[in-house]
């Protein structure tokens, strides 16, 4: 669609259903941003629209990159990003503050954000290379652990808990799908559950407070629980059909914090109600299901793991954000992809979609040419 | 795992992937369903609750305090009104940096340190959103200076409102009381948000307190849409307040103010009654506090000064001061004697003293009055005549008449409290002290001493009932219903008593100084003195004090009851000077009573008379109060004894022992 000079055949080959879905989500997001600004294209809706189309174009370009090329550049990209994370840490250390991006003059590169798809690619690449026979040996575990642990640890240092968690989850998902023994996951989960009370006991007071406020945000409605309380009020007061376009009082009167970024879902639900909320949830469900479908149909181990990992990365974005705004998870800074204002999340998700389209294209071509 | 060494092939790995991908998809779907369910729960099941919360976020309801009803006198002249004012409050919960805000406010409003101290004290005690007053009655410049800096001063709330104003100041202090912010206790009882609305005042004393339901009115309300930071977006609806009702009193504001001024430096009360209706024309207790300064919230210094004053400015002496009535009961005694069958022409020879049992009772005139009939006994206030007559009859024959005249009675008046004293008799004494009534008790009671205690209002009612012969009831309001019933005593007897009281002033009696100079109007009166003897530890230690140098609290009470015109009474009054002592002639009861009664018939003459003597007392009430406050501050600043440090007598006159007159 954006590719003016491209001939009809590749254009027709694009997964149009999925693209319409992405356009619907993004378009709805722009409507919400327009309303969040009090019925104005500035400062959010217009800029976001431009970025959205730009990154959508980028995704379509990425869809033309063959799988072999992805394989080839996976580790180099991963390496560059790890170096960039170290660089960010170093610059932050020198300038005496915490910093998350590298200013490259034209764009600000946020390596931790890029790491979200990159970790999936890297771990998938590793298992793609690993012979199946070695899957039950220690050699199947420690390189993956290193691949995940280094960037996650560096991001933790920034400190950015939300992103570190997503990198870890993304990588672990791939290891799980690659077929590591189930007992590793069950055992870890049990160990974590057992350690939680002990960890709680070892925590500082302020950390404990955060946990307690998450468990009962109403206990501190004007302090740390304020975000969650106000978000729930916005969502709950919307009712079935919402208060109407441009009629959201929680967002427009500043009661809802971060109304255009992390809490954009609450802004939307206040005005569009349950109907609007279910629409978005369903749209994301379809998008992620498409991603999982791509993984199913993929031909190589690397492609399968990558596709499922990337689809799950999108799922983590959506799931964590929605759980957070509805008071089911603590407040960690994870935006709602394609809807929240901001460039990095759109870019990350569009990279995911681009690679998914690329894998989709490859597997369909393979089927057409048996 | 059952098989520890499982062989993994590419095929089985692919199969594992498919299974696990399905599981992952299932988990994703499950989370999706959970999110959808949670969303539905919030927006359907809890919709009502959250809609309410959202609305209470959005809409800020501000009560508009109702304008308080006016209090006016019988001619519609204002006694208590409302003035527009600018005020600044602090909302404790919204203050971020207390010291900075207080510092800025002090600079902007030029508040004295003393005020800052009070504000800090109030802030300590304040709870939550109950506003603490910073300043009231501000001029526009200061108000604007605070208003434009609101963003830098979180917690500060500038308001435009009304403040209570009493044009006559201290003169009406004890009558109307004062208003002030509701107490935390009052709020806890009713939880009425109006009570904690800035600028809203409730009556704290006097009529302001007792007539609160009538004066309060109904608050208005303003609904405004506000942002999270409290910025006003738009006004939604405004309902204006309904002002309280105007309260019209029988008081004559001019007379009230005049009487208060005429009392001068005395600690005393004046009650003037309309003999036709029982309406109270003046109801004064001086010195008093200025209710205007009370409604602003009183400073600690001011409070301490008032509560340490031995003239008891914080007590409404007109109903709370109890005194032995002394010789003012003699006209009433005369009526009782007449009703008991005593011939008014019967004479008693006064030799100056009389022996009863083992005691000797003296007349106030050492040499004695010689032979006296009833009229002359009243005119000369002879004690021996009444000792002798009451000794013959017994006080139990007099007490019912005393009560019928209003002594010892509690009247239904909208006053926060009354003390009604005692009219003793034998059964009362037996009940109270388990002792038999003695002749000495009768003799003491016959001259208004001993166990007899009354308040100034009762003395005024006695004068009014003697003047009209009816069971007049004092009242602050017009249209009190049916006229008072006649008292069950013979009209001729009343006429004899009135004639004796006329004689007191106009035929060479003890009250000659009170003769009115208004043509055609004669005053009938009776003077009275109650000697107060207190023996304190300090006095014992320091030796007996001479009478000439008695400290204030040792001096006699000076009483005066009267009515005018003597031939056709329209007004009756009582003047009670606590520890008046008959020391300064123009401050004594006869002249005070005369001038106050003169005011009712000839204002100019009364004012002339007042203006002649007022400068010798140190100016009018406001001037004297200001000078006193200045002196207090000065004394407080310099270490040393405080100007008036004697403790407040709990029951003035309670220890009175004997009277001479």
Automatic annotation (TrEMBL), chain A:
Q: What class of enzyme is it?
A: transferase
Q: In which pathway does it act?
A: Cell wall biogenesis; peptidoglycan biosynthesis
Protein's name in the database: Peptidoglycan glycosyltransferase MrdB
Species per Swiss-Prot/TrEMBL record: Sphingomonas horti
Q: Tell me where it mainly resides.
A: membrane
Q: Which reaction does it catalyse?
A: [GlcNAc-(1->4)-Mur2Ac(oyl-L-Ala-gamma-D-Glu-L-Lys-D-Ala-D-Ala)](n)-di-trans,octa-cis-undecaprenyl diphosphate + beta-D-GlcNAc-(1->4)-Mur2Ac(oyl-L-Ala-gamma-D-Glu-L-Lys-D-Ala-D-Ala)-di-trans,octa-cis-undecaprenyl diphosphate = [GlcNAc-(1->4)-Mur2Ac(oyl-L-Ala-gamma-D-Glu-L-Lys-D-Ala-D-Ala)](n+1)-di-trans,octa-cis-undecaprenyl diphosphate + di-trans,octa-cis-undecaprenyl diphosphate + H(+)
Q: Which NCBIfam families match?
A: rodA_shape
Q: Name one Pfam family in it.
A: FTSW_RODA_SPOVE
Q: What does this protein's UniProt record list under function?
A: Peptidoglycan polymerase that is essential for cell wall elongation.
Automatic annotation (TrEMBL), chain B:
**The Penicillin-binding protein dimerisation domain, residue ranges:** 64-236
Cellular component, GO annotation: plasma membrane
Provide this UniProt record's keywords sorted from A to Z. Answer: Carboxypeptidase, Cell inner membrane, Cell membrane, Cell shape, Cell wall biogenesis/degradation, Hydrolase, Membrane, Peptidoglycan synthesis, Protease, Transmembrane, Transmembrane helix
Gene3D superfamilies xref list: DD-peptidase/beta-lactamase superfamily (3.40.710.10), Penicillin-binding protein 2a (Domain 2) (3.90.1310.10)
Subcellular localization(s) per the UniProt record? Cell membrane; Membrane
Q: Where is the composition biased (Low complexity)?
A: 651-661
| Renumbered residue ranges of the record's region Disordered | 637-661
- Give a Pfam family name: Transpeptidase
Going by the record, the broad EC class of this enzyme is hydrolase
Query: Which InterPro entries does UniProt cross-reference here?
Result: Beta-lactam/transpept, Beta-lactam/transpept-like, PBP_dimer, PBP_dimer_sf, PCN-bd_Tpept, Penicillin-binding_protein_2
The terms under GO molecular function for this entry are: penicillin binding; peptidoglycan L,D-transpeptidase activity; serine-type D-Ala-D-Ala carboxypeptidase activity
Q: Indicate, by first and last residue, each region the UniProt record lists as having compositional bias (Pro residues).
A: 640-650
Write the Enzyme Commission number(s) for this entry.
Answer: 3.4.16.4
Q: Which domain of life is it from?
A: Bacteria
Q: Which residue ranges run through the membrane? A: 21-41
Q: Which residues form the Penicillin-binding protein transpeptidase domain?
A: 268-581
The entry's protein name is Penicillin-binding protein 2
Give the organism, scientific name: Sphingomonas horti
Question: What phylogenetic lineage does the species belong to?
Answer: Bacteria, Pseudomonadati, Pseudomonadota, Alphaproteobacteria, Sphingomonadales
């Amino acid at each position: 669609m954006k590719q003016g000079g491209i001939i009809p055949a590749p254009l027709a080959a694009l997964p149009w259903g999925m693209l319409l879905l992405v356009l619907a989500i993004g378009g709805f997001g722009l409507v919400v941003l327009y309303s969040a600004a009090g019925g104005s294209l500035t400062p959010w809706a217009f800029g976001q629209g431009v970025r959205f189309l730009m990154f959508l174009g980028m995704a379509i370009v990425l869809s033309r990159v063959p799988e072999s090329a992805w394989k080839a550049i996976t580790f180099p990209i991963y390496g560059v990003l790890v170096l960039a994370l170290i660089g960010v840490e170093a610059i932050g250390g020198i300038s005496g503050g915490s910093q998350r991006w590298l200013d490259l003059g034209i764009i600000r590169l946020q390596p931790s954000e890029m790491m979200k798809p990159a970790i999936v690619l890297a771990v998938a690449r590793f298992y793609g290379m690993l012979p199946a026979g070695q899957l039950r040996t220690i050699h199947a575990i420690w390189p993956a652990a290193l691949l995940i642990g280094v960037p996650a640890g560096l991001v933790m240092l920034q400190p950015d808990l939300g992103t570190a968690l997503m990198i870890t989850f993304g990588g672990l998902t791939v290891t799980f799908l690659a077929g590591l023994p189930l007992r590793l996951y069950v055992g870890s989960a049990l160990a974590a559950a057992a350690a939680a009370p002990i960890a709680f006991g070892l925590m500082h007071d302020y950390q404990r407070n955060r946990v307690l406020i998450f468990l009962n945000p109403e206990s501190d409605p004007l302090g740390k629980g304020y975000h969650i309380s106000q978000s729930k009020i916005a969502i709950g007061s919307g009712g079935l059909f919402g208060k109407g376009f441009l009629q959201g009082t929680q967002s427009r009167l500043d009661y809802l914090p971060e109304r255009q970024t992390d809490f954009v879902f609450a802004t939307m639900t206040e005005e569009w109600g349950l109907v609007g909320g279910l629409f978005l949830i369903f749209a994301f469900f379809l998008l992620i299901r498409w991603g999982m479908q791509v993984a199913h149909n993929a031909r190589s181990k690397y492609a399968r793991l990558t596709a499922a990992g990337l689809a799950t990365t999108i799922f983590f974005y959506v799931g964590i954000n929605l759980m957070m705004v509805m008071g089911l998870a603590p407040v960690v800074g994870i935006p709602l992809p394609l809807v929240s204002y901001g460039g990095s999340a759109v870019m990350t998700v569009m990279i995911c979609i681009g690679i998914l389209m690329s894998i989709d294209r490859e597997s369909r071509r393979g089927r057409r040419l048996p | 795992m059952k098989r520890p060494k499982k062989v993994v092939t590419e095929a089985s790995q692919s199969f594992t992937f498919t299974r696990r991908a399905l599981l992952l998809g299932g988990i994703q779907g499950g989370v999706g369903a959970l999110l959808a369910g949670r969303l539905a729960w919030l927006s359907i099941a809890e919709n009502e609750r959250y809609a309410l919360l959202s609305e209470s976020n959005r809409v800020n309801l501000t009560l508009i305090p109702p304008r308080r009803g006016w209090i006016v006198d019988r001619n519609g002249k204002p006694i208590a009104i409302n003035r527009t004012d600018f005020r600044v409050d602090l909302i404790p919960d919204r203050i971020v940096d207390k010291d900075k805000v207080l510092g800025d406010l002090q600079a902007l409003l030029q508040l004295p340190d003393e005020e800052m101290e009070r504000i800090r004290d109030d802030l300590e005690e304040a709870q939550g959103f109950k506003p603490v007053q910073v300043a009231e009655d501000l001029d526009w410049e200061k108000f604007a200076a605070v208003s434009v800096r609101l963003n830098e001063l979180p917690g500060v709330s500038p308001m435009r409102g009304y403040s209570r104003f009493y044009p006559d100041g201290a003169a009406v202090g004890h009558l109307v009381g004062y208003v002030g912010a509701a107490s935390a206790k009052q709020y806890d009882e009713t939880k009425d948000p109006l009570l904690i609305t800035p600028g809203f005042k409730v009556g704290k004393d006097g009529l302001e307190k007792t007539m609160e339901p009538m004066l309060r009115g109904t608050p208005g309300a303003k609904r405004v849409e506000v942002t999270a930071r409290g910025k006003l977006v738009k006004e939604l609806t405004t309902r204006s307040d309904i002002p309280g009702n105007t309260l019209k009193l029988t008081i004559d504001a001019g007379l009230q103010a005049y009487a208060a001024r005429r009392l001068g430096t005395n600690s005393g009360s004046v009650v003037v009654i309309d003999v036709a209706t029982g309406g109270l024309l003046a109801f004064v207790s001086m010195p008093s506090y200025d209710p205007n300064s009370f409604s602003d919230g009183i400073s600690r210094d001011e409070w301490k000064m008032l509560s340490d004053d031995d003239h008891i400015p914080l007590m409404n002496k007109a109903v709370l001061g109890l005194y032995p009535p002394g010789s003012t009961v003699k006209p009433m005694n005369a009526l009782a004697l007449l009703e008991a069958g005593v011939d008014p022409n019967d004479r008693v020879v006064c030799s100056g003293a009389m022996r009863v049992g083992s005691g000797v009772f003296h007349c106030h005139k050492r040499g004695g009055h010689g032979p006296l009939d009833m009229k002359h006994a009243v005119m000369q206030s002879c004690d021996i005549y009444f000792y002798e007559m009451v000794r013959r009859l017994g006080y139990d024959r007099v007490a019912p008449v005393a009560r019928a005249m209003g002594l010892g009675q509690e009247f239904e008046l909208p006053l926060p409290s009354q003390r009604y004293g005692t009219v003793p008799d034998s059964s009362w004494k037996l009940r109270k002290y388990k002792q038999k009534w003695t002749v000495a008790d009768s003799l003491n009671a016959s001259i208004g001493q001993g166990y007899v205690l009354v308040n100034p209002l009762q003395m005024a009612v006695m004068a009014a009932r003697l003047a009209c012969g009816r069971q007049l009831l004092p009242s602050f309001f017009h249209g009190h219903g049916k006229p008072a019933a006649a008292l069950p005593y013979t009209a001729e007897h009343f006429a004899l008593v009135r004639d004796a009281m006329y004689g007191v002033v106009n035929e060479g009696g003890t009250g000659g100084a009170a003769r009115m100079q208004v043509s055609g109007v004669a005053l009938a009166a009776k003077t009275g003195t109650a000697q107060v003897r207190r023996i304190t530890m300090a006095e014992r230690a320091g030796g007996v004090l001479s009478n000439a140098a008695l400290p204030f609290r040792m001096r006699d009470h000076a009483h005066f009851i009267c009515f005018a015109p003597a031939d056709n009474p329209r007004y009756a009054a009582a003047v009670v000077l606590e520890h008046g002592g008959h020391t300064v002639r123009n401050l004594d009861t006869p002249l005070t009573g005369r001038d106050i009664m003169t005011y009712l018939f000839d204002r100019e003459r009364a004012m002339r008379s007042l203006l002649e003597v007022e400068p010798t007392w140190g100016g009018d009430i406001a001037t004297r109060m200001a000078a006193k406050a200045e002196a207090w501050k000065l004394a407080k600043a310099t270490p040393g004894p405080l100007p008036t440090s004697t403790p407040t007598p709990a029951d003035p006159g309670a220890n009175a022992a004997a009277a001479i007159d």
